[in-house]
Amino acid sequence: MRPRVVCGIAAAVALFATACGSGGGGGQGAVTAQAAPAGAYPVTVADCAGKETVIAKAPAKIVTSNASSLEMLLRLGAGDRVIGTGFPPGKGTLPADLAEQGAKVPVLGEKAIAKEKLLGSGADLYVDTFGAMPMMGGGATGPSEEEYAAAGIQHVYLLSTACAGTPKAAKAPRTDFAGVEEDIRRLGAVTGTAARAEELVAGMEKQVGEVRTALAGVPQEQRPGYFVFDFDAGTKQPVAVCGRQVANAVITQAGARNVFADCDADFKPGSWEDVVAKNPDWIQLAVRNRGSEEATRKAFDDAEAFLRSFPATQGLKAVQEGHFVRLGSEVTTIAGVRNADAVRQIAATVHPDLVKNGQ
Fold this sequence. Notes:
By secondary structure, the protein is an alpha/beta fold. The chain contains twelve helices and 16 strands.
């Protein structure tokens, strides 16, 4: 049998899980995989440098590097094979239908999984959101490919989250979810859940397509400027969500214009002077889920209160007009099925006459 070819990318990440996507502004030289039927093996996955890994059979013991790849596997129906994760999802982070199963996954590292623990985990597959870099948050380097092989662990990456900060990354802004959808299809092929992967991708495309149709008559120049305020990253120096980040695709699909789409990165430290100069029409209060509705609502309130009281921002158009989008950072900046939900929520807020949330 000719191996099924599926592409992955190895590289770096910003914050606790970035997303770059492969759509819109340009590709990575990767071949988009056609979904393999369940049980169609071998499956070949290639990294950014073209190095191939052949998956000969369905993995039985999977470790994920963080909550992004874990959620994808849970949605694919492969969650019962996940034996551990790093960067575990915080309370309230996963949607209700996945939270119970996700909470049962052993935590091998509160941040990056220590090299020795990962190699000794007994896994036959490691799904890596971060790629080859000093292991984020741990200050140590991860295993070499030779060490993975010696431990019997096959190593695959998420295309949409492992390359945004590297020289090989596409330079043009990300404006669609091609990379995210490819990740879902690739993991479906690798785990033998290709049919479910197609269902997930179809659901995303349907939801985003409905929004795109509703906004088709809105000229580009009339689409509002939009700034993602990552409150949890700190208030002294704002972090710009740039064009390579998956959030740029979320914003674009929602009929808005990311005011920092032109910075050639995924995330980039900025200044409040930069934000003032952009004077966005809308500001997303991108807080992380606090584990309860009350605590998360308070975090949104605190983020808004800061912008209303901080001298540099209180005169901004969005602040003066109360144009705030209360939407968590996870569904905006981490690649996954819920990116499509974020598109609808943003579109329903900034274009309420054209898009209704939940319709």
